Amino acid sequence: MMHLMRSTPDRNKILSALTNWLKHPAREQVVRVLEGKRPSDEHPAFFMEVPRLIVGLEGRGTFLTIENDAEVLLDLAPGQVMFLSPYTWICPLPRAPYRSLGVVLRPDSTRLTIHARSAIAADGTIPSRYEAQWRTLETLGPKSDHLLQLLREPPALLLGERTFTLLMEVLLAELAALVKRAPEHDRPSQTVLWQSVCDYLSEHWSDPQLSRKETARFFNRHPNHFSRFFHAHTKQNFRVYLNEIRLERSLHFLRDLRYNVTDVANLCGFTDAQYFIRCFRQRFGFTPGKYRNRRED
Q1: Packing angle between helix 223-234 and helix 189-204, nearest 10 degrees?
Q2: Is 205 a residue whose pLDDT tops 50?
Q3: pTM of the prediction?
Q4: SS3 for 109?
Q5: Which residue blocks in the chain are alpha helix, DSSP H?
Q6: What is the pLDDT of residues 135-170, one digit of tens each?
Q7: Pick the CATH number of 189-296 from 3.40.50.2300, 1.10.10.60, 3.80.10.10, 3.90.1150.10
Protein backbone atom coordinates (compact mmCIF):
# COMPACT_ATOMS: atom_id res chain seq x y z
CA MET A 1 0.00 0.00 0.00
CA MET A 2 1.28 3.47 -0.90
CA HIS A 3 1.56 5.86 2.02
CA LEU A 4 1.70 9.62 1.56
CA MET A 5 4.99 10.89 2.91
CA ARG A 6 5.40 13.98 5.07
CA SER A 7 3.53 16.81 3.39
CA THR A 8 5.36 20.05 2.71
CA PRO A 9 4.17 23.15 0.84
CA ASP A 10 6.64 22.57 -1.99
CA ARG A 11 5.71 18.89 -2.34
CA ASN A 12 2.03 19.83 -2.42
CA LYS A 13 2.52 22.51 -5.10
CA ILE A 14 4.48 20.17 -7.34
CA LEU A 15 2.16 17.22 -6.83
CA SER A 16 -0.82 19.48 -7.61
CA ALA A 17 0.81 20.61 -10.87
CA LEU A 18 1.47 17.01 -11.94
CA THR A 19 -2.00 15.84 -10.94
CA ASN A 20 -3.70 18.68 -12.83
CA TRP A 21 -1.69 17.87 -15.94
CA LEU A 22 -2.65 14.19 -15.76
CA LYS A 23 -6.34 15.13 -15.50
CA HIS A 24 -6.06 17.30 -18.61
CA PRO A 25 -3.10 16.20 -20.76
CA ALA A 26 -2.00 18.74 -23.32
CA ARG A 27 -3.46 18.39 -26.80
CA GLU A 28 -0.35 19.92 -28.36
CA GLN A 29 2.52 17.62 -29.26
CA VAL A 30 5.54 17.05 -27.07
CA VAL A 31 8.48 19.29 -28.03
CA ARG A 32 11.66 17.25 -28.30
CA VAL A 33 15.13 18.84 -28.28
CA LEU A 34 17.54 16.09 -29.32
CA GLU A 35 20.52 18.06 -30.65
CA GLY A 36 20.23 21.47 -29.02
CA LYS A 37 23.50 23.23 -29.73
CA ARG A 38 24.48 26.40 -27.97
CA PRO A 39 23.04 29.75 -29.16
CA SER A 40 25.22 32.79 -29.73
CA ASP A 41 27.21 34.06 -26.76
CA GLU A 42 25.12 37.14 -26.10
CA HIS A 43 22.30 34.95 -24.80
CA PRO A 44 22.34 33.11 -21.46
CA ALA A 45 22.23 29.38 -22.21
CA PHE A 46 20.88 26.66 -19.96
CA PHE A 47 22.46 23.23 -20.14
CA MET A 48 22.51 19.94 -18.27
CA GLU A 49 24.28 16.69 -18.89
CA VAL A 50 21.17 14.71 -17.86
CA PRO A 51 17.66 14.44 -19.36
CA ARG A 52 15.04 16.93 -18.19
CA LEU A 53 11.46 18.01 -18.80
CA ILE A 54 9.80 21.42 -18.86
CA VAL A 55 6.01 21.52 -18.44
CA GLY A 56 4.21 24.75 -19.27
CA LEU A 57 1.91 25.85 -16.44
CA GLU A 58 0.85 29.43 -17.27
CA GLY A 59 1.69 31.84 -20.05
CA ARG A 60 3.73 30.88 -23.09
CA GLY A 61 7.46 30.27 -22.82
CA THR A 62 9.76 30.86 -25.79
CA PHE A 63 13.13 29.13 -26.11
CA LEU A 64 16.01 29.37 -28.56
CA THR A 65 18.28 26.51 -29.56
CA ILE A 66 20.35 25.36 -32.53
CA GLU A 67 19.19 22.34 -34.54
CA ASN A 68 20.85 21.28 -37.82
CA ASP A 69 23.06 24.39 -37.60
CA ALA A 70 20.04 26.72 -37.70
CA GLU A 71 18.44 28.80 -34.94
CA VAL A 72 15.08 27.40 -33.86
CA LEU A 73 12.52 29.20 -31.69
CA LEU A 74 10.31 26.88 -29.66
CA ASP A 75 7.07 28.01 -28.00
CA LEU A 76 5.77 26.12 -24.98
CA ALA A 77 2.04 26.49 -24.37
CA PRO A 78 0.29 25.84 -21.03
CA GLY A 79 0.14 22.08 -20.55
CA GLN A 80 2.66 21.38 -23.28
CA VAL A 81 5.81 19.43 -22.37
CA MET A 82 9.37 19.86 -23.63
CA PHE A 83 11.77 16.93 -23.45
CA LEU A 84 15.49 17.74 -23.47
CA SER A 85 18.03 15.01 -24.18
CA PRO A 86 21.28 14.98 -22.22
CA TYR A 87 23.87 17.53 -23.36
CA THR A 88 21.40 19.87 -25.02
CA TRP A 89 21.17 23.65 -24.72
CA ILE A 90 18.19 25.95 -24.65
CA CYS A 91 17.99 29.67 -24.04
CA PRO A 92 14.75 31.14 -22.64
CA LEU A 93 13.54 34.22 -24.54
CA PRO A 94 10.14 34.84 -22.94
CA ARG A 95 8.02 37.47 -24.64
CA ALA A 96 5.69 37.54 -21.63
CA PRO A 97 5.73 36.16 -18.06
CA TYR A 98 5.23 32.44 -17.72
CA ARG A 99 5.45 29.63 -15.16
CA SER A 100 6.79 26.15 -15.72
CA LEU A 101 7.43 22.88 -13.93
CA GLY A 102 10.97 21.59 -14.39
CA VAL A 103 12.05 17.98 -13.86
CA VAL A 104 15.71 16.95 -13.66
CA LEU A 105 16.29 13.19 -13.82
CA ARG A 106 19.72 12.35 -12.40
CA PRO A 107 21.04 8.81 -11.89
CA ASP A 108 21.02 9.32 -8.11
CA SER A 109 18.14 11.73 -7.51
CA THR A 110 15.03 13.39 -8.91
CA ARG A 111 14.46 17.14 -8.64
CA LEU A 112 11.30 19.09 -9.49
CA THR A 113 10.87 22.85 -9.42
CA ILE A 114 8.21 25.39 -10.26
CA HIS A 115 9.86 28.36 -11.93
CA ALA A 116 8.38 31.79 -12.65
CA ARG A 117 10.07 33.94 -15.29
CA SER A 118 9.35 37.49 -16.37
CA ALA A 119 9.52 38.70 -19.96
CA ILE A 120 13.02 39.31 -21.25
CA ALA A 121 14.17 42.84 -20.42
CA ALA A 122 15.72 45.35 -22.82
CA ASP A 123 19.19 44.55 -21.46
CA GLY A 124 18.70 40.82 -22.10
CA THR A 125 18.16 39.81 -18.47
CA ILE A 126 15.31 37.50 -17.54
CA PRO A 127 14.15 37.99 -13.94
CA SER A 128 13.16 34.65 -12.46
CA ARG A 129 12.46 32.93 -9.17
CA TYR A 130 11.65 29.50 -7.77
CA GLU A 131 8.11 29.07 -6.43
CA ALA A 132 8.76 25.51 -5.25
CA GLN A 133 11.70 23.11 -5.08
CA TRP A 134 11.55 19.44 -4.16
CA ARG A 135 14.13 16.67 -4.34
CA THR A 136 14.31 13.01 -3.46
CA LEU A 137 17.25 10.64 -3.57
CA GLU A 138 14.95 8.05 -5.18
CA THR A 139 14.58 7.64 -8.95
CA LEU A 140 12.19 5.89 -11.32
CA GLY A 141 14.89 3.36 -12.09
CA PRO A 142 14.99 1.23 -15.27
CA LYS A 143 11.43 2.16 -16.18
CA SER A 144 12.43 5.81 -16.49
CA ASP A 145 15.53 4.92 -18.51
CA HIS A 146 13.40 2.99 -20.97
CA LEU A 147 10.80 5.75 -21.33
CA LEU A 148 13.49 8.39 -21.84
CA GLN A 149 15.19 6.28 -24.48
CA LEU A 150 11.89 5.87 -26.35
CA LEU A 151 11.41 9.64 -26.26
CA ARG A 152 14.69 10.00 -28.17
CA GLU A 153 13.76 7.57 -30.93
CA PRO A 154 11.60 8.05 -34.08
CA PRO A 155 7.83 7.86 -33.51
CA ALA A 156 5.88 4.65 -33.95
CA LEU A 157 4.74 4.25 -37.55
CA LEU A 158 1.01 4.03 -36.80
CA LEU A 159 0.88 6.47 -33.88
CA GLY A 160 3.15 9.22 -35.20
CA GLU A 161 3.66 12.14 -32.78
CA ARG A 162 0.99 10.66 -30.49
CA THR A 163 3.71 8.21 -29.46
CA PHE A 164 5.44 10.90 -27.44
CA THR A 165 2.25 12.19 -25.81
CA LEU A 166 1.48 8.67 -24.56
CA LEU A 167 5.04 8.16 -23.35
CA MET A 168 4.90 11.50 -21.54
CA GLU A 169 1.63 10.59 -19.82
CA VAL A 170 3.23 7.43 -18.46
CA LEU A 171 6.38 9.26 -17.39
CA LEU A 172 4.53 12.09 -15.62
CA ALA A 173 2.21 9.59 -13.91
CA GLU A 174 5.26 7.74 -12.59
CA LEU A 175 6.73 11.03 -11.40
CA ALA A 176 3.51 11.96 -9.61
CA ALA A 177 3.58 8.60 -7.81
CA LEU A 178 7.22 9.20 -6.87
CA VAL A 179 6.49 12.66 -5.46
CA LYS A 180 3.59 11.22 -3.49
CA ARG A 181 5.45 8.31 -1.93
CA ALA A 182 9.16 9.10 -1.85
CA PRO A 183 10.91 10.60 1.17
CA GLU A 184 11.98 14.16 0.60
CA HIS A 185 15.71 14.78 0.75
CA ASP A 186 15.85 16.41 4.18
CA ARG A 187 18.33 19.23 4.34
CA PRO A 188 19.49 20.89 7.54
CA SER A 189 18.67 24.58 7.44
CA GLN A 190 22.32 25.59 7.07
CA THR A 191 22.70 23.61 3.85
CA VAL A 192 19.48 24.60 2.07
CA LEU A 193 21.04 27.62 0.40
CA TRP A 194 24.18 25.71 -0.55
CA GLN A 195 22.25 22.93 -2.28
CA SER A 196 20.16 25.52 -4.10
CA VAL A 197 23.37 27.19 -5.28
CA CYS A 198 24.68 23.82 -6.51
CA ASP A 199 21.46 23.28 -8.46
CA TYR A 200 21.73 26.76 -9.94
CA LEU A 201 25.33 26.19 -11.05
CA SER A 202 24.45 22.83 -12.57
CA GLU A 203 21.91 24.62 -14.78
CA HIS A 204 23.97 27.68 -15.70
CA TRP A 205 27.66 26.68 -15.73
CA SER A 206 27.96 26.93 -19.54
CA ASP A 207 26.70 30.52 -19.58
CA PRO A 208 29.73 32.78 -20.20
CA GLN A 209 27.96 35.58 -18.31
CA LEU A 210 27.67 33.51 -15.11
CA SER A 211 29.47 35.32 -12.30
CA ARG A 212 29.70 35.50 -8.55
CA LYS A 213 27.86 38.82 -8.58
CA GLU A 214 24.97 37.56 -10.73
CA THR A 215 24.63 34.38 -8.67
CA ALA A 216 24.62 36.38 -5.44
CA ARG A 217 21.92 38.64 -6.88
CA PHE A 218 19.78 35.65 -7.85
CA PHE A 219 19.86 34.46 -4.24
CA ASN A 220 19.37 37.96 -2.82
CA ARG A 221 22.78 38.00 -1.14
CA HIS A 222 25.44 40.70 -1.04
CA PRO A 223 28.40 39.60 -3.23
CA ASN A 224 30.86 39.81 -0.33
CA HIS A 225 28.61 37.77 1.97
CA PHE A 226 28.08 35.27 -0.85
CA SER A 227 31.86 34.94 -1.36
CA ARG A 228 32.39 34.09 2.30
CA PHE A 229 29.50 31.64 2.23
CA PHE A 230 30.82 30.01 -0.96
CA HIS A 231 34.37 29.67 0.36
CA ALA A 232 33.10 28.12 3.60
CA HIS A 233 31.55 25.27 1.61
CA THR A 234 34.16 24.75 -1.12
CA LYS A 235 37.44 26.18 0.27
CA GLN A 236 37.71 27.78 -3.19
CA ASN A 237 36.62 31.05 -4.71
CA PHE A 238 33.72 31.15 -7.13
CA ARG A 239 35.79 31.44 -10.33
CA VAL A 240 38.08 28.52 -9.47
CA TYR A 241 35.13 26.30 -8.56
CA LEU A 242 33.22 27.25 -11.74
CA ASN A 243 36.27 26.61 -13.93
CA GLU A 244 36.64 23.18 -12.32
CA ILE A 245 33.08 22.31 -13.38
CA ARG A 246 33.67 23.63 -16.90
CA LEU A 247 36.96 21.77 -17.33
CA GLU A 248 35.45 18.47 -16.20
CA ARG A 249 32.54 18.93 -18.61
CA SER A 250 34.91 19.84 -21.45
CA LEU A 251 36.23 16.27 -21.52
CA HIS A 252 32.90 15.10 -22.95
CA PHE A 253 33.12 17.53 -25.87
CA LEU A 254 36.80 16.87 -26.54
CA ARG A 255 35.86 13.24 -27.18
CA ASP A 256 33.55 14.45 -29.96
CA LEU A 257 35.71 15.21 -33.02
CA ARG A 258 33.00 17.40 -34.56
CA TYR A 259 34.19 20.18 -32.23
CA ASN A 260 37.58 21.86 -32.43
CA VAL A 261 39.24 23.17 -29.27
CA THR A 262 37.85 26.68 -29.74
CA ASP A 263 34.35 25.21 -30.11
CA VAL A 264 34.79 23.25 -26.89
CA ALA A 265 35.98 26.35 -25.06
CA ASN A 266 32.90 28.28 -26.19
CA LEU A 267 30.55 25.40 -25.42
CA CYS A 268 31.87 25.29 -21.87
CA GLY A 269 31.52 29.01 -21.13
CA PHE A 270 35.10 30.13 -21.86
CA THR A 271 35.18 33.22 -24.06
CA ASP A 272 38.95 32.96 -24.61
CA ALA A 273 40.29 29.70 -26.10
CA GLN A 274 43.85 30.39 -24.94
CA TYR A 275 42.63 30.89 -21.38
CA PHE A 276 40.74 27.57 -21.65
CA ILE A 277 43.90 25.79 -22.87
CA ARG A 278 45.96 27.31 -20.06
CA CYS A 279 43.40 26.29 -17.40
CA PHE A 280 43.11 22.81 -18.93
CA ARG A 281 46.89 22.29 -18.80
CA GLN A 282 47.02 23.46 -15.19
CA ARG A 283 44.18 21.11 -14.23
CA PHE A 284 45.13 17.95 -16.15
CA GLY A 285 48.84 18.38 -16.91
CA PHE A 286 48.49 18.42 -20.71
CA THR A 287 46.68 20.44 -23.38
CA PRO A 288 43.23 19.65 -24.82
CA GLY A 289 44.93 18.65 -28.08
CA LYS A 290 47.17 16.12 -26.29
CA TYR A 291 44.12 14.76 -24.45
CA ARG A 292 42.53 14.08 -27.85
CA ASN A 293 45.70 12.45 -29.18
CA ARG A 294 45.83 10.15 -26.14
CA ARG A 295 42.23 9.11 -26.77
CA GLU A 296 42.97 8.32 -30.42
CA ASP A 297 46.16 6.28 -29.72
Answers
A1: 100
A2: yes
A3: 0.73
A4: strand
A5: 9-23, 142-151, 162-181, 189-204, 212-218, 223-234, 238-254, 261-267, 273-284, 288-296
A6: 898 999 999 999 999 999 999 999 999 999 999 999
A7: 1.10.10.60
